[in-house]
Each structure stands twice: as C-alpha cells, then as structure tokens.
Amino acid sequence: MSQIDLVWVLMCTALVFMMQAGFMCVEAGITRTKNNISVAIKNISDFSLSVMLFWLLGYGLMYGESFGGFIGTSGFAFDGLGDAEAYTLFLFQLVFCGTAATILSGAVAERCAFHAYLIITAITVALVYPLFGHWAWSTGPDGSPAGWLGKLGYYDFAGSSVVHAVGGGIALAAILVLGPREGRFLESGQARRFNGSNLPLTMLGVILIWFGWFGFNGGSELRLTNAVPGILLNTVVSGASGVLTGLAVSWMLEKKASVFHAMNGGLAGLVAITASCDLVSVREAVAIGSIGGLIALLGDRALERLHIDDVVGAVPVHFMGGLWGVMAVAFFGVNELETSFWSQFGMQVTGIAALIFLAVVLPFAAFLLIDRVMPLRVTQHVESIGLNVGEHGANTDLNELFEVMQRQARDRDLSIRAPQSPFTEVGQIGLFYNSVLFELERSFELVREQKNDLSEAIEQKSALLENILPKRIAERMNGGADQIVDQVTDATVVFVDIVDFTEYTASVPPEESLGLLRDLFRRFDGVIQEYDLEKIKTVGDSYMYVSGVTSDIPDHCAVALDAAVEILFETGQMGQSIGRKLQVRIGIHSGPLVAGVVGDLRFVYDLWGMTVNMASRIEEAGKPGKISVSQSVIDRIGNEFVYERQGRVRLKGIGPSVLYSIEGRRPGMARKVQRKSETGI
C-alpha cells in the first residue's frame, strides 16, 4: 500500500468515525427530551466497547487465519506489529464495527436498560459482526476469499449486509424482545408517534452520516484509484434519490411532506448502494436508492401494523435496506462480476439466509434467555420519568422546573417554589412563575370555598333532577341544555290499567285503596327497572312506561312485552296475597314518537304522538287479564311470542284496527331478563 493510499484510507477512517456523531445527533433529536442524554451516553459507550472488544477478539475472528471458512483463529489483541498498513486496515475495520454496533442504539431507545445495551453491543461486536464479516470478507494470504460465503461468490463491496443488515437485524431481535414503548400503540390499535426533542438536530445527524459515507464507500476500495470518484458519485445520487422518493411517497400517502420518511429514505438509499457502488452506473445507482427509500417507508409502516416499535427506523433503513442492497448486486452488477443473474441471485440469497440466521434468529433466542435472568428493559417508573434521570441521574434545570410543576399538580400544594436564578433562562422563568404562584396562593382559599359552595349546589340540583327525570335526560339538563326534545324513530309504548278499580275504591276505606295502588305500582316499578325501561307517569289507576327511548335497546318491542308479561304475573301475585281477583288491561303499540321535558316550575318527562294515543286506545279496547297489541308490535316480534288474533275493533278516534293477544314467549325462546325470583337476586 503506497503512502497516498495510506493517507486516503486513514482520511476515510476519520470520515466513517464522524458517522458516530451523526448517529448520535439523529437519535438524540428524534427521541424525547427525557431520554436524549441516555442516547448520547449509549453512543459513546458502544463505540468505546467496540474498540476494546474488536481489538481483543473481533478482529481476529473476522480477519484471522480461517478455520474452514467459518471463523478466524489468529490476530487476537495484536501488538507490536510495527506495520502501518496493518494498523491502517485495522482502524478502518474498527470504525465499520462501531457503525454496526451503534445502529442498535436508536432502535431500542427510551426503554432498553443501559446494562442490557452494553451486553447486546458486546454480542454484536465480539461475535455476530466478526463472524458474518469473516464469512463474507475474509481473505487468504494470496488475497482470495477465505470465508465460505466469499468462496461461493457472495458479493458485498462496502457492507450493505456485513455492517448495516447485521446491525439492523440485531436491532430487530432486540426490539422484539423489549416490546414497544409505553403508549406507542393505543388500545384501539392505532399507532402513536412521539414528538422528538430536536428534529433539526436529527437532520444535521443525517447530513453528518451522509458526509461520513464518502469514507465508508470510498475507503472500501482500500486504495485511491480511478474507481473512487465513480463510487462517490454513485453514493451521493443514491442517497439523494432515496430522500426524494421517501418525500414524494409520504407526501402522496399522508398528504404532507414527512421529515421522518425523507431522512430515512436518504439513509436507506445510502445503505442500499453500499453493496454495489463499485459495480453499477449512475442511473442504476439512482434506481437502487429510490427503491431503498421506498422500502424504508413501506417497512416502517409494516412494523407499525405489527406493533413493533423502532424509534428511529433502524430496521427498515439498515436491515431491510441492506438486504435490498445485497440483492441489487444480482439485478445490476452481474456484468461487472462476469456471472449470470441466476447464479449471483442464488449466492446473494444464500448470504441473506445466513445473515438472518446469525443476526436475527440466534440473537433473538439469546436475548430471550438473557431477559429471563436479567431483564433487558427498564422498569415502568424509569421509563415514565425518562432514562436521563432514571438511569444516569442526568438532571437539568428544565427537568427540575418540571418536577416542581408535577409535584404541585399532584399534591395541589402551591407553597412549593420553583428553582429561580436571574442568570439562566429557566431560572428567570422560575422567578416569574413563583411570583404568579404567590398571587394564586393568596386567592386560593377564597376560590376553594366558592368551589365547595358551587359543588354542593350542583350536587343538590343533580340529585333533584335525577329524582324526577330519567338519568340520561337529567345529565343533559345538567350539561346546560335548556330544552329537551327528542324525535324517536321507533319505540314501544305500554299502557296498564287496573280493571274495576273504581268499584273497588267505593267498597273499601280510602287508605286501603291507596295502599293497594301504591304496593301494586311499586311491583311494576321493580319490573321495569329489571328490564332497564322508563316509567313515564301514573294517572289514577293507570301506569305508563316506554321501551327504546332513554336506553339503547335494539329489540325494545320484545323487551317491553317481557316486562308486560311480568306485570301480569305480579298483578296475579298481588291479588292472591290480598285474597281478591285483581286484573289489569295492557295495551301496547310501537312506532315513532316525540319525547321531552315539559314545564318550568315542575318538570315532567312526557311522550306524545300517534304511538302514545294508539297504545292508550288499545288498552281501552283490550280484555281484562290480557296483553293487547297492534299489528306493528306483531311485525317486530316475529315468532318469539305466542299470540292470537282478537279480531277487528274500532278504536276511539282512530277507527277499525286489528288487535292481538300476547300469551307469552314460545318454548325455547329465552327471556331477555330473568325475574329476580329466578336469578336469586
């Protein structure tokens, strides 16, 4: 390697290292403020851990003398080589390893415990990344492929799969075990996106990563050759086409230009071109990047549908985009590789299958086992307060102000004061906030007394309304409605009248007749309460109720008939208890009506319309001890009840009508509500 080549690779190493800063900006900006410090410390920690473990173990496993094409066996913790070229290649591969490791950080953000993240990083850089890297990139002393995938002809120029798909695959395994963040997916199944702390910082991170990709792809040539400018141009146009594709498609689907899909489309385009940037033309690079951007968008939507929570979209961008980049080699690069499409296609598919097994399936099983021994996820409390404070004790002036506000909201204690200082922005806010609190505290007692008086008055009003009106109607009046009128398209009205009650009252003392009426109507009240029906009023010895008005009862007609049968039963029971023959006539009709609250001094909930009039006339023409109903009732109940035709009668003010008598439910047709005597209530 010439001196100019050494300088070029070292410069590219520095560019790839700059991608670490880009990833940190992306992740810190897209996560919530309470977790952005946690993301930052994860980024610097995973790179530091990568440096030590890759030097100690990973580099030897990846580039050491191959054992059967599966694993390296030399070069562990090397020292004293004195070889500038070896050190340069190690440094270049080291920053690649750091990139693969840091991909994970954004995917598991906001709920992965710090110790768990370090364990996952260690598995990535010490085992998974170097093993797959050995399979694909390891070479023998003569420069020929030494790994089993490389020997087959598998091709990945700069790491679409080795770096990005491996990092994204491990991220997928981790988030499957961790599960989504609290509140990410609502009970209705709808996905909810959280607001990032600083989207401009995120976009700066994307640009830094893009800048670093000049070193990522350009440096993978390992020499400053005439091919480098073409590689860099392909890299740039692929990223740009990915941005525009993500922007355009999200604009069409969501009716807005999405920052998230634009940035991830660009990153996916860069990931996708990385495997074949030395093989394809500029036009082909545009196509590869566009497809990568589309895959990132559709992949993100697919993860949401599956309720898989990837905070930054690492899986769609790096895993899915990386797999597409590997397959793009077969679609666009076979001429340069001098192979056939189907031959290269089979080689690339074989590599993808090996990658999924090594970087997704095995890590998923390992993380499940680790999670049982040492939970990978933080506690719900730590997740709620944020990992900045919960795991790292990294508080800020703004967090302290928020804590004071939260304590005040929780304890209703205005005596607590916010931190104040004239020399910081948050301290100045606290100073003025405390001045407002002082004024509020002075009037708080007066406000509380007035509130208590008002609450008592409202409670008295509500109790009064609920005693004289249906609960749902009373709630509407309490809500401020000054007129309650409802047009009901279909309901069932029931009139009940005690037969020969006038003669009975003439033969007994008034107290006895009034007691009978009170006890009987009390039984009727119990029946309609069981069936969730509404008593409208009593007039003398008549009782009226309705089904399907104040309660949502789709089969209101059948329920009204069940209650009528119960009323006949209760009337007979009452008659037996007093030793007299006691009968009622019941008239029922279904149809449209108007209901509302009448009166100002005394409220009455009443019904009016032809349906009410018809039910009243049917009761008058009915037979003692029978439930008389109109044709409209028969049309609604179908074959649920046993009934017989009474015949045509002339109803007062209405004219000839056909009436029917209801005997009860047919055998095998269950009541909508059982009697209390049957249920044991």
Automatic annotation (TrEMBL):
CDD domains the record matches: CHD
Keywords: Ammonia transport, Membrane, Transmembrane, Transmembrane helix, Transport
Domain Guanylate cyclase: 492-619
Organism: Yoonia sediminilitoris
Transmembrane helix recorded as keyword: yes
Source organism superkingdom: Bacteria
The UniProt record lists the keyword Secreted: no
Name assigned to this protein: Ammonium transporter
Topology with respect to the bilayer: Multi-pass membrane protein
Record-linked PROSITE patterns: AMMONIUM_TRANSP (PS01219), GUANYLATE_CYCLASE_2 (PS50125)
GO molecular function, one term: adenylate cyclase activity
Residue spans crossing the bilayer: 6-26, 47-64, 84-104, 116-137, 157-178, 199-216, 228-251, 311-333, 345-370
